[in-house]
């Protein structure tokens, strides 16, 4: 029988699998030594990290405030006003300063798993631009011809940093799946046109994807909102998968239209009070609906441990 890691990798490589992969098959790794994990509130490691220490100074010189109610962090105001000045203000992290060997030693038991190890990149390109100059100015910078050159320069250097991060996380910890976090849309539509995305963001997504693939790793795009109009660029970039936001997109329609060219994570969420039989029926219906499609199962974060165990059993049956 294939391990969860082996099965998921076969799925990504279009090789025969034994079962439909799910988010139960990967294990998140986000050590505290990568301070972005701390300031954004997503530390996953062997030793529990105190929640009250989330937030603070992250990469690039940005300060973050963690909001426990929403489980996330926000920046403290604009970092600077003119994107053309980014080289004056942005403090680039030195990934070589981290004692990666020591991180591996202190997490040896956590990393000893038959699951696919996954790490997150907080954040991608547009979200990072927003964190520097605010949402409105970021939107303008993507389309203002006088500002675009500065954005290209920033994004290119960000892509190099992300590829460096991928290499280190893979070579030291065998992380093979990377979530690239970059929201591109609202509930109704993308923040920008397909043409703008193609010109200003796609080249750097491709650079990260190409770097990951050269390392033997995979990229899972995280992008909330109704970004269906950008699907051509998901394919063009060579991204390995995207799970999307269930409340903002019609996932069955997208899978139907793009499932022959792309792999999708699709959320499975039993009702809070669902019985064992109802959960089993939900999984059967899900498997039947997406049989033969390029789909893996994304477990809802709202799922109870009992339902999670039932779903896992049903997926394996």
Structural write-up:
The protein is α/β, with parallel strands linked by helices and 317 residues long. It folds into two domains: 81 residues, no CATH class; 219 residues, TIM Barrel. The chain has 14 helices and ten strands. A hairpin with a 5-residue loop joins β2 and β3. The radius of gyration is 20 Å and the shape is globular. The model has no long low-confidence stretch (mean pLDDT 94).
Summarize the structure.
By secondary structure, the chain is of the alpha/beta class.
User: Which architecture of the largest domain does the CATH hierarchy give at level 2?
Assistant: Alpha-Beta Barrel
Distance between the termini: 13 Å
* CATH level-1 class of the largest domain: Alpha Beta
The helix content, as a percent range, equals: 40-55%
Q: Over the alpha carbons, how many angstroms does the gyration radius reach?
A: 20 Å
Number of domain units:
2
Q: Which range does the strand content fall in?
A: 5-15%
Average pLDDT confidence is 94
In the predicted model, the low-confidence regions spanning at least 5 consecutive residues are none
The gross shape turns out to be globular
Strand order of the largest sheet: 1-5-6-7-8
Largest sheet: 5 strands, parallel
Please tally the β strands and state the result: 10
Q: What structural class should be given to the helix and strand makeup? A: alpha/beta
